[in-house]
Amino acid sequence: MSAIQSFVDRDYDLRLLLGWIMQGTLKAFDLRSNVVLADCVEREFSADEGVEMIPLGLYLIKGDNVALIGEVDTDKDATIDFGALKAEPLPQIHF
């Protein structure tokens, strides 16, 4: 468990089964993949408008809703103009 602890206080991008995209700073986790994100933002994509950033603050996400977790390169992320980025929203994931 101590090796996993090194992942705390880093920025992560989460893809949820409903197609939502969340980003924030990992503050806590458990063995069921439940995660707590600080400064959490939902990125809502649209084919007609730029990406809408919805601030959520401190957010608890149940592990059974998480499809994918990836670390964010904050330097590269800061260079992206999300207001001009247009893309279709991700569909829900079905098993």
TrEMBL record:
What's the protein name? Uncharacterized protein
Q: Which organism is it from?
A: Naganishia friedmannii
